[in-house]
Write a structure and sequence with these properties.
The complex is a heterodimer of chains A (about 575) and B (about 350). Chain A has about 575 residues and is an all-alpha fold. Chain A has a domain at about 375-480 and about 505-584: MetI-like fold (Orthogonal Bundle), CATH 1.10.3720. Chain A is about 80% helix and about 0% strand. Chain A has 25 helices and no strands. Chain A has helices at about 1-10, 15, 25-45, 60-65, 65-100, 105-120, 120-130, 135-145, 160-185, 185-195, 200-225, 230-235, 245-255, 260-285, 300-355, 375-380, 385-415, 420-435, 435-450, 455-480, 485-495, 500-525, 530-535, 545-555, 555-584. In chain A, helix 5 packs across helix 15 and helix 16 (about 375-380) crosses helix 25 (about 555-584). Chain A is globular. Chain B has 2 domains: about 10-235, 3-Layer(aba) Sandwich (Rossmann fold), CATH 3.40.50.300; about 245-355, Nucleic acid-binding proteins (OB fold (Dihydrolipoamide Acetyltransferase, E2P)). Chain B is built from 8 helices and 20 strands. A 6-stranded mixed β-sheet of chain B has the order 6-7-8-3-9-10, sandwiched between helices. Chain B has a 5-stranded antiparallel β-sheet with strand order 13-12-11-14-20. The longest helix of chain B is centred in the middle third of the chain and has 18 residues, at about 175-190. The chains are: A mainly alpha (about 575), B alpha+beta (about 350). The interface of A and B includes residues 188, 194, 196, 199 and 201 of A.
Chain lengths: ~575, ~350
């Protein structure tokens, strides 16, 4: 009795029963130093005058006074908004179709959504340049089949940008909406019909209403992600589609105007935060992480329900009309046909790159006049490409290890802790996914310049780890959610201490999730361009950075060969990660 | 047959109704006629086809063959929302984005009723299930029993031709379930609605139904009043599924100028009027028909294996032969044998039922 008393006096309670939240501390510190601090620094930089000291809004005044910048801001909002709109319009039917499918089939179909999502933006953009170019696939088909004589201008205009952006964002929209739709009890639609609602009323007034949290969350995520795009507008857009992130890159890389780049980045971050704030006012931010939507009261709710009723009436007339034109069977085919078309839109352009990698021609013609391995030989015999590839692998491996440890422990901490700050901590770890990458990259460059980390592999690893932590944490969290915590309690009653419980029970059981998290983090780093542009300093180039430099100079078949290599590596890692995730 | 209101024209007629999914048959071709105002229970184990039959009647599942006739009109091809049928779901299926009052108003709105009428009828329906004070709440703020009552009100409020209930009490605990059974009985009596009720709980079926439609292996096993099904089961399955039955299998033999059933426990006389067709059959005897009686006409020797005291009665479980168990019910006040004692278990031959 006295021994117990002495021991408990010797050890303070937080040491005897340490809170699980301590596991999240390393990640918290890491993100505070390499993410929160540089971003905050960047924001403060934007309001300090170039000479140093004092407080100045000069940079913002310059934005406000220069027509060009305001126009770019307007263009950025317009493109991001349109991208969100089209991604929802195209993604919703696909997600709806997938949600109604049996689980096994849906899992397989999801790969058609996941693969384009994880495929490098550079590869995707390269593919669209080949498809949409003046002598590209579409124009070739058009003129070849005699449908048109003049090649269409599909590239370097708004159309090209929208195609590239929507193609990149539909997977994100689908992946955000799908869990909400799967969670909707299908019997509610049946109930509405037995109560006398026609199929279109049952859909709009029950199913669509209940899927709205997913729709709005997808819209917000797509909008915010789109704000930071620069690869797609740089290659698929013209001068009039210049977006904010491109301006930031120019300011930093060519004009070395830090405060102004900071001001532009601050503006982008502010727009993202305002979008989040408006979303929270309207729908409640918790719906993004799957919380239930708050049901509004009063007039706004009545208006919303009224709008749905109008939509229902309109669509039921539309359904009647199409039934008269294409018949009842035809009507039933509309959804699957549309879904398959969207899947084709997502998957096919990237696949077109593969034959081009094997072309025997000196040019990127489609179809290739003959096949050869010469461009792969060029790639494998180029010291520049190979050293970039090796660096990418090494950096990605180190990043994946770090991110899995940090993210995994954070997920474990949150799963075990019952703190009311859980949501906030989760959001903090997720923030690098939400804050536009270009903002993080610029802030990080500034910090690294002072720490001497620019143009070092360590700098790249740190930068990529910041970006990969959210993916690793979300993956491990999802596995832990299905993990029965009573097994830990059982291990404890059987005499295992906390470390042994972790080593012999928890980790073996969530192993698949950890491997999946590792692979997702690996792909995140392997594909990453934004940080690489700033941190690699032109010397320590990675594979995506080398691709970017080449694409800016000139399109050549070596790029197609490299794209094939990147596509194959990323796709096989992704399929592997999915297998591990599912097995767990 | 003592079917209430059997002179009234049938509310629902099901003709050769059948459902196949590829090679598997969810419902064999089935005939069924339900008179107006009847409370019919579809009873059976899971996978017996009862829910399929229900879904075919309301049109949620497309039929493979046959016809569904409601009020004399063929409704086989009518879409769900035009069938004028009410369905109460197992997990209520209340719309989470609508309040209690809006949930109940939903079917009336779909039928384009005036808002004055909707207001009045919703208030009536809420009163009927004693939930007037919860009209503005959302479903998730209610208890399971309250949600169930909202689901009932949403169904009764538009007075559909037929009300279908798919294991509506399945999610409730025993006490609440018994309370809701009484509630449903009252609603049935007050509204005079025709109700088809699916359950796998035989006690619930006995307590609620005018008639029970016992289903097994995707077809109707037996259709009749609770009393008929309990006292005159037509198959061993029917006997076994409803109540406790002692079933003795054997072959027919001729002895002493009459046909008897030869089993491994002895030779028993058949009940009067029983048609002994085929090679053999089984005798079904309910526990309350058995008694300890060495002089009975039909009797077997058994050893008392378990004694269960249940207040109003005492249940004896006895081993006969090597392994077969028999259950007896002794009314309170009778002398109870001791554990392990060998007793003579007997019954009047007319208290038994012969099934194939």
């Amino acid at each position: 009795m006295s021994a117990v008393a002495t021991r408990s006096r010797a050890m303070p309670s937080w040491l005897r029963r340490p809170s699980p939240l301590w596991l999240a501390v390393p990640g918290f510190v890491f993100l505070a130093v390499f993410f929160a601090y540089p971003v905050a620094q960047l924001l403060s930089l934007s309001i300090s005058p170039p000479e140093g000291g004092g407080f100045s809004l000069a940079a913002f005044q310059r934005i406000a006074n220069t027509d060009v910048y305001l126009r770019v801001l307007g263009i950025t909002f317009k493109i991001a908004g349109n991208t969100a709109l089209w991604s929802l319009l195209i993604g919703y039917p696909l997600a709806y179709w997938l949600a109604r499918m049996p689980e096994i089939f849906r899992g397989r179909m999801m790969l058609f959504v996941m693969v384009p999502f994880w495929t490098s933006y550079l590869v995707k953009t390269f593919a669209w340049m080949i498809v949409l170019g003046r002598s590209g696939v579409i124009n070739n088909l058009m003129t070849g089949s005699g449908l048109g004589t003049q090649p269409l201008d599909l590239l370097h205009n708004e159309f090209g940008v929208m195609v590239g952006m929507v193609h990149a964002m539909v997977p994100l929209a689908v992946m955000t909406m799908l869990p909400v739709m799967i969670g909707i009890d299908r019997r509610l639609v049946q109930a509405a019909q037995t109560l006398g609602a026609s199929p279109s009323r049952a859909f709009w007034q029950v199913y669509f209403k209940l899927s709205l949290p997913g729709v709005t969350a997808a819209g917000l995520l797509v909008f915010i992600s789109s704000l930071g795009f620069f690869i797609v507008p740089a290659f698929l857009g013209g001068r009039r589609e210049t977006m904010l992130a491109q301006l930031i890159i120019t300011q930093v890389q060519e004009l070395l105007n830090w405060p102004f780049a900071g001001a532009l980045a601050a503006m982008m971050l502010a727009s993202a935060l305002i979008a989040c704030w408006i979303y929270d006012r309207l729908f409640g931010i918790s719906t993004i992480s799957g919380g239930s939507a708050q049901e509004g009261k009063g007039r706004i709710r009545d208006i919303g329900l009224g709008v749905l009723q109008l939509l229902a009436t309109a669509s039921s007339h539309l359904a009647d009309l199409s039934r008269r034109v294409i018949g009842k069977r035809g009507n039933r085919l509309v959804l699957p046909v549309f879904a398959w078309l969207v899947i084709g839109f997502l998957v096919l352009p990237t696949l077109l790159v593969i034959p081009l990698g094997f072309t025997s021609s000196q040019f990127l013609e489609f179809p290739p006049p003959g096949y050869s391995l010469q461009w792969f030989e060029t790639y494998f015999s180029s010291p520049l490409w190979i050293s970039a590839t090796i660096r990418s692998f090494a950096v990605a491996a180190a990043t994946a290890f770090l991110a899995t440890c940090i993210g995994g422990f954070a997920a474990l901490a949150l799963a075990h802790s019952r703190t009311r700050w859980g949501g906030l901590i989760f959001a903090f770890f997720l923030a690098p996914m939400i804050v536009p990458r270009i903002v993080i990259a610029v802030g990080m460059f500034y910090l690294f310049a002072r720490l001497g980390l620019v143009a070092t592999d360590l700098g790249l690893v740190i930068g990529h780890t910041v970006l990969a932590i959210p993916f690793a944490m979300v993956t491990v969290s999802a596995i832990l959610k299905t993990y029965d915590m009573r097994l830990d309690q059982a291990a404890a009653t059987l005499g295992a201490n906390r470390v042994r419980t972790l080593a012999y029970v928890t980790i073996p059981l969530v192993k698949g999730g950890l491997v999946a998290a590792f692979l997702f983090a690996f792909i995140t780093s392997f594909d990453e361009l934004t940080i690489a542009i700033f941190v690699s300093g032109g010397i320590k180039t990675t594979l995506p950075k080398q691709m970017w430099d080449d694409m800016i100079l000139q399109l050549n078949p070596t790029l197609a060969a490299v794209s094939v290599v990147v596509f194959v590596i990323v796709t096989s890692l992704l399929l592997l990660a999915e297998r591990f995730r599912r097995a767990s | 047959m003592t079917v209430p209101g059997s002179k009234a024209p049938p509310k629902l007629v099901v003709e050769g109704l059948c459902k196949r999914y590829g090679a598997t048959t969810a419902l064999e071709p089935t005939q069924l006629s339900v008179p107006e105002g009847e409370f019919l229970t579809l009873l059976g184990p899971s996978g017996s086809g009862k829910t399929t039959l229900l879904q075919l009647v309301c049109g949620l599942v497309e039929l493979s063959e046959g016809r569904v006739i409601i009020d004399g009109r063929d409704q086989s091809d009518t879409p769900v929302h035009q069938r004028d049928i009410g369905l109460v779901f197992q997990h209520y299926a209340l719309f989470p984005h609508l309040t209690v009052a809006e949930n109940i108003a939903f079917p009336l709105k779909m039928r384009g009723r005036s808002s004055a009428e909707i207001g009045k009828r919703v208030a009536d329906a809420l009163g009927m299930v004693h939930l007037g004070h919860l009209a503005e709440r959302f479903p998730r703020e209610l208890s399971g029993g309250q949600q169930q009552r909202v689901a009932l009100a949403r169904c009764f409020v538009y007075q559909p031709s037929i009300i279908l209930m798919d294991e509506p009490l399945g999610a409730l605990d025993k006490k609440l379930r018994e309370h809701m059974q009484i509630e449903i009985k009252r609603l049935h009596r007050e509204s005079g609605a025709t109700i088809i009720y699916v359950t796998h709980d035989q006690e619930e079926a006995l307590a609620l139904s005018d008639r029970i439609c016992l289903m097994n292996h995707a077809r109707i096993e037996q259709l009749g009043t609770p009393q008929e099904i309990y006292e005159r089961p037509r198959t061993a399955f029917a006997a076994d599924f409803i109540g406790i039955s002692n079933i003795l299998r054997g072959t027919f033999v001729a002895a002493d100028g009459e046909r008897r059933l030869e089993t491994s426990y002895g030779r028993f006389s058949l009940p009067a009027g029983a048609v002994a067709s085929g090679e053999g059959g089984a005798l079904v005897v309910r526990p309350e028909s058995l008694r300890i009686d060495a002089g009975a006409q039909n009797r077997v020797e058994g050893r008392v294996k378990e004694i269960v005291y249940a207040g109003s009665e005492t249940r004896l479980i006895a081993t006969i032969g090597d392994s077969e168990l028999m259950t007896l019910r002794l009314p309170a006040g009778e002398v109870v044998p001791t554990l392990g004692e060998t007793i003579a278990i007997g019954w009047d031959r007319d208290k038994a039922v012969l099934v194939p």
